[in-house]
Amino acid sequence: MDRGALDSLLHNPRIWRGRNPAQGSAGIASGYDLLDQHLPGGGWPRQALTEILTEHYGVGELRLLMPALVALSAEDPLADFEEPGWIAWVAPPYQPYPPALQQWGLDLSRVLIVRPKTDAEVLWSAEQALSSGTCAAVLLWPNQLDDQAGRRFQLAAEKGNSWAIAFRPWAAHAEPSAAALRIALQAGSKGTHLHILKSRGGRPAVLHNLL
Amino acid sequence: MQRAFAFKGGALPLETPSVPASTAPTTPTKLWFCAYLPNLPLEASGADGSARVIVEDQRGIHRVLQANSAALAAGVMAGQSSNAALALLPDLIIEERCPLREQQALEQLAAWLETFSSMVNIAGPNLLLLEIAGSLRLYGGLECLRQKLVDGFKQHGMSVSLAIAPTPLTATWLARAGRRVCIRDAANITRALREIPVTCLEWPVATCEALAGMGVKTIGECLRLPRDGFARRFGPQRLLELDRALGRLPDPRTSWRAPERFCADIEMTEEQSNSERLLTICEQLLQSMQRFLVTRQLATQQLRFSFFHLRAPATQLIVGGAGFDHRAEHWLDLLRIRFERVALPEPVIAIRLEGGRHQAMQSGSASLALQGNATRPSRWYSMSQLAERLAARLGRQSIQSVSTVAEHRPHRAWQAQTAAGVVTGWSNRPDSMSRPLWLLPEPAVLTAQGFQLLNGPERLETGWWDNDGIARDYYTALNPHGHHLWVFRDRTRQADAHHWFLHGLFG
Fold first, then answer.
1. Could you report the per-residue pLDDT of B37-87, keeping only the tens digit for each?
2. Which of B136, B159, B135, B201 is CA-nearest to residue B69?
3. Cβ contact (<8 Å) for A60 and B400?
4. Scanning every residue of chain B, which has its alpha carbon at the shortest distance from the alpha carbon of A78?
5. CA-based nearest residue in chain A for residue B406
6. Are B446 and B499 spatial neighbours (Cβ–Cβ below 8 Å)?
7. What percent of chain B lies above the pLDDT cut of 70?
8. Are A59 and B482 within 8 A, CB to CB?
9. Strand B470-478 and strand B484-490: pairing?
10. Interface pTM (ipTM) of the complex?
């Protein structure tokens, strides 16, 4: 096997290589330095599926994402002449509160809220939004997300150059997942702990009192 | 006196009628293009290579009216009875003549011709007239325009006989006679018409026979007859036609206008239930709609498809977009999404497409490909297209965009718009105290105890003027599970004074 073929194989992000830092594109800075240090690429994985597992909604999962979402929604003068992508919220459990989003600095004109009625429609809408190429990030709250759907999201995110974030109950941590990054958030009286359960190109870790 | 003069036989014996100067044609610049479609009945029925004839009921017997080349090669001739034709060629496809279909084909051609001139006239069941003097400069001269028209008719699959003349009737007669001539100068009309047989005028049979009996066979011979005698024998209408053809009298024509809303249907030869095949037929309809809309520089927001069944009532399918669009591919995309979820009760025999409300087309500016960044593929389609796709399946009310409202009451401080277009969000003065990322639809009584107040109170007492007033003290709280809550105490009712209400989560 010649050198070039080997290189291209090693650059495949699906190949996990021991300690080596992740190859390929840099991540989206999460806004939390400690987290960035533990994520390959120094941030949230682009063009990939991220799963966030929580016991309840509202433990800080949005606060964790907000700095990155704000950066994505902002006009980036250096990137090119394209307008920034949209941020789609598919089947959120409560109402995302626009005044709070604005306080964080999110551009509300780039927010799209989709409320499908059935599980199948949730998956379909999220896949449409991901593969459309217009959404910088797609947040979704599915009731069900099997391995196959996860893989579809992974492909759609690659196709549409988008970032998929699926919020799932803690009970799902035992299921296999195609996600590039799996994070569990646990809130307690002593603060919020963040577990990196799976990180493609990185290592599992536990971070305390991040938020 | 006139007769005597006429019989002496000058070059132009018909003297100029006494027409007031004002009504005489004052603009000699008109130029009429006439397309005569002799094979319209055959060509309107669709064109494929197999042998095909159009039959018409003539005194109780179905006789061949027209046959295509494959049928002619096998010896089928016009005038044969359909049984005789079948005996010659057992595979022959026999179709009844359908005047409605011919009319539709003619209108389709007229709609296409509207791209060349504002004055299109359907002059007869197989005649189209087009005033082209005003279009010559745009299309780069007569020869170019003529070539474009010839090519266009060929693309439509129509065999056509063309003529160009300064008056509509002259152009018509020349086209009927099959003379591919182009007359630009009115002075040459008489010479061009001289040899045209009288049968091309399509005058009543009795008139033609009477003329033939007199030995008059061409228009030139006709013109040599005395005016008043001619009018007495054959009626003033015939004389008027001759005068109009020669340009002595004005010949006003009404200009045909295509309907403002698109409506077309396709009838299938056999029932069809395969959805892919049906979509292909819908695509044809959408393509012709696109041509219709582009010609008028319009875009539409809603389409209605009707799928007709043999026994069941027609299935209606309304496809709506968030914005106005004219592109067939866009509508086909939306239709495909809707179509997946439609259960047709029966196979389909015909499809109709009707356009909805129109609006002037707005063409966006395409971005320069040079600026593309290799690592970042361009956004394939716009946000409104994504919203349309989602709305097509989920319903319009399921797609929201949000904005803030300058209002202190938390539940009124925002609003949602259905089906994202472009939201003109105006940047609001942020509230001084932090707001939760999740808002509950309704405040809930908080039964759990033991939470710890972190921040507050923020007193909101407002809205007394519209019967939706609030008087609340809001706090940020942390419960034992580590959740950050947005809670309040209601100050309006004494009974609620000790209750805590949960209104949001800081997520």
1. 988 888 887 666 778 888 888 888 888 888 888 888 888 888 888 888 888
2. B159
3. no
4. B373
5. A99
6. yes
7. 85
8. yes
9. antiparallel
10. 0.84
- What's B342's DSSP letter? -
Q: Token pair of B31, please?
A: 């130029």
Local confidence band at B25 (pLDDT 50, 70, 90 cut-offs): very low
Of all residues in chain A, the one with the smallest CA distance to B400 is A113
- Average pLDDT of the segment spanning B160-180: 90
Give the distance from residue A53's alpha carbon to the nearest chain B alpha carbon, in angstroms: 13
DSSP character at residue B301: E
Which residues fall within 8 angstroms of residue B160, CB to CB, at 6 or more apart?
A: B35, B36, B37, B150, B153
Average of per-residue pLDDT values in chain B: 80
pTM over 0.95: no
Taking CB atoms and an 8 Å limit, are A59 and B483 in contact across chains?
yes
Phi, psi of B99 (to 5 degrees): -60, -30
List chain B residues with CB under 8 Å of A192.
482
Identify all chain B residues contacting A103, using CB atoms and an 8 Å cutoff: 430-431, 434-435
Q: Which residues of B touch A128 (CB under 8 A)?
A: 386, 389-390
CA distance B195 to A63: 92
- Looking at the DSSP assignment, which residues form a beta bridge with residue B182? B164
- pLDDT of the residue at B202: 85
In 3D space, the residue among A190, A193, A154 whose CA is nearest the CA of residue A61 turns out to be: A193
With CB atoms and an 8 Å threshold, state whether B382 touches A161.
no
Count the alpha carbons within 13 Å of B83 in the hemisphere toward its beta carbon: 1
- Report d(CA B505, CA B308) in Å as an integer: 53
Chain A residue nearest residue B450, CA to CA: A189
Q: Distance (Å, rounded) from C-alpha A122 to C-alpha A111?
A: 17
Nearest chain B Cα distance for residue A36, angstroms: 20
Res B506: pLDDT: 86
User: Across the A/B interface, how many CB contacts are shorter than 8 Å?
Assistant: 180
Of B387, B423, B483, the CB nearest to A58: B483
Nearest chain A residue to B379 by CA: give it.
A133
- Structure tokens given for B185: 């100068």
Residue A211, token pair as written in the block: 């938020």
Of A58, A99, A160, the CB nearest to B438: A58
CB contact (8 A) between residue A80 and residue B376? yes
Pairwise CB contact (< 8 Å): A99 & B394: no
Residue B286 has pLDDT above 70, yes or no: yes
Q: H/E/C letters for each residue in chain A?
A: CCHHHHHHHHHCCCCCCCCCCCCCCCCECCCCHHHHHHCHHHCECCCCEEEEEECCCCCCHHHHHHHHHHHHHCCCCCCCCCCCCEEEEECCCCEECHHHHHHHCCCHHHEEEECCCCHHHHHHHHHHHHHCCCEEEEEECCCCCCHHHHHHHHHHHHHHCCEEEEEEEHHHHHCCCCCCEEEEEEEECCEEEEEEEEECCCCCEEEECCC
| pLDDT of B238 above 50 | yes
Contact B438, A57 (CB under 8 A): yes
Determine the Cα–Cα distance for residues B121 and B258; give it in Å rounded to an integer.
11
**Angle, vertex CA B205, rays to CA B202 and CA B211, nearest 5:** 90
CB contact (8 A) between residue B481 and residue A59? yes
**Residue A165 burial (C-beta neighbours within 10 Å; 0-12, 13-18, 19+):** buried
Contact B401 A111 (CB under 8 A): yes
Cβ contact B398–A114 (<8 Å): yes
Hey, how many other C-beta atoms are within 10 angstroms of the C-beta on B499?
13
Contact A125 B375 (CB under 8 A): no
- Nearest alpha carbon to residue B162 among B183, B151, B176: B176
Residue of A63, A95, A138, A192 to mutate for B, most B C-beta atoms under 10 A: A95
In residues, how long is chain B? 507
Name the nearest CA neighbour of A203 among A39, A44, A46. A39
**Rg (chain A; Cα; Å):** 17
Handedness of CA B387, B390, B393, B398 (dihedral sign): negative
